[in-house]
Amino acid sequence: MIAVIIIIVILVVLGIIFAGMYNSLVGRRNQVDNAWSQIDVQLKRRYDLIPNLVEAVKDYMSYEQETLTNVTAARTAAMNAGNQGPQAQAQAENMLTESLKSLFAVVEAYPDLKANQNVLSLQEELTATENKISFARQFYNDSVLTYNNKIQMFPSNVIAGMFNFSTRQFFEAPEGDRAVPKVDLR
Asked: Distance between CA 84 and CA 123 in Å, rounded?
């Protein structure tokens, strides 16, 4: 009789441990999904601001149509990359960031445009959005690290394998974007 009670207690304890690990894995996976959603929200905000900026500068920049076309094309590519995973999204977003930098550099060459309150306001909003995207990316990568560690470490990796939890990709910059810029102060 005592042996049966001990076995029941052991099974109950193992069941509680098992349920706790499973629930922890589900919580981490949901945190990763939430973090990705936060990036998505900020990216959509960015996508909404870009056409307004292009419209605001279009009349002033009649000779810079290539820059405006590049920004529009990069925006479209970034919007379409959303379903292809973090790596494709990161690459498309980096191309969009580069095209926006080019646009802002051209804006600097037009004194009237540089002084336009609407353009200044849109630039400030885009800069704030870029900062929010950066923080959201960092939170996403932190969440992915915690989740991937959880599903790869013993004993939770056993439960992760049983229920097909799989690792997630980090939101990383492509290799070319990691190069250190050369600075020549001569």
From this structure: 28
